[in-house]
Amino acid sequence: MRRSVIEFWFDFASTYSWLSAVRIEALAQASDCAISWRPFLLGPIFKAQGWTSSPFNLYPAKGRYMVRDISRIATARQRAFVMPDAFPANSLAAARLALAVGDDDIAAFTRRVFEAQFESGADISQRPVLEAVLQSIGLDAVAIFAASEAAAVKDALRGNTAKAQSLGIFGAPTFVTADGELFWGDDRLEQAIAWARC
Amino acid sequence: MRRSVIEFWFDFASTYSWLSAVRIEALAQASDCAISWRPFLLGPIFKAQGWTSSPFNLYPAKGRYMVRDISRIATARQRAFVMPDAFPANSLAAARLALAVGDDDIAAFTRRVFEAQFESGADISQRPVLEAVLQSIGLDAVAIFAASEAAAVKDALRGNTAKAQSLGIFGAPTFVTADGELFWGDDRLEQAIAWARC
Lengths: 198, 198
Description:
The structure is a homodimer. By secondary structure, the first copy, chain A, is an alpha+beta fold. In chain A, 55% of the residues lie in helices and 9% in strands. Chain A has eleven helices and four strands. In chain A, strands 2-1-3-4 form a four-stranded mixed sheet. Chain A is globular and about 40 Å long. Chain A starts with a strand and ends with a helix. The model of chain A has no long low-confidence stretch (mean pLDDT 96). The A-B interface holds A 49, 59, 61-62, 64-65, 68-69, 72, 168-171, 181-184, 187-188, 191, 195 and B 49, 59, 61-62, 64-65, 68-69, 72, 168-171, 181-185, 187-188, 191, 195.
């Protein structure tokens, strides 16, 4: 049986992407799906539709609700939730690193960056935070940081963001199945997996 | 045992409110919850945050996604889905009528208005459409229309919208439990009922 691939499009600053990043592997494995990790930047997509920041900052009632919604879900899933002081974090460095670590390490790297941010409240725009994550999974932080600044990595991230926009992605997380269906939000993850019929 | 009340805040023009309106009674009954039906207008709330229309019109990618998301959910629930030509409909008359029919009939009236709109594609801003709904549940359409234009009804609807805004409601449907928790979206209905511990 050929394993069906689900693309997992996420921005490192996104709270709902965190909820998915820490559970998608177990869910995918149980369904024999393969996950393709696709970091991108929401910033340019928000900007293109006239938003200067996260909708959770632009619309305070929505922002307050998001924190409460995430808190309830985290409690139900027995996960700690700490809202970082700066939100949304600048996720550029994390996204480039995710592309630089390569396919073997992107899942572990991504999960740990999200955990540092939303379970410990760390500011993931800060290099020492990202270095600690790289080291925690046995990678050479200095070498990976250097690699993440290569033109090819910068281009790959710009390419991901442009691809997200061309797919019609307007928020994160978004799951895209092989037949091109979009599923937006952590609350659509199970539906995406069922649709993919892995 | 005292039955717990869940407030169901909805706008008649809202697709996701339709999804909830047609299933909330069965879910509530199974959990022994009581539903308090709260029609309000999203328009003034959107306007207060700078939106001149539905976000599904302002942000086309989001609008296209909504139609596809609703289609998939409707199919899974074995319900027809027809997107009306005019969206969002002007829901003022329907909302006033919902308040005018009274507590005994608001559930049936609301469900049928939503069904006419999103299962048959009817324009619910049109009086004949609303008259047909009133007649289908055995009410005197002419008398109810007259009653719906009373100052008390107009004030009640304005009061509902102001209350929604003061509760922090920014979209529909929203479910509010007795302890003041907000749950936004049809996909949070089960969670709201579980929270209410009816």
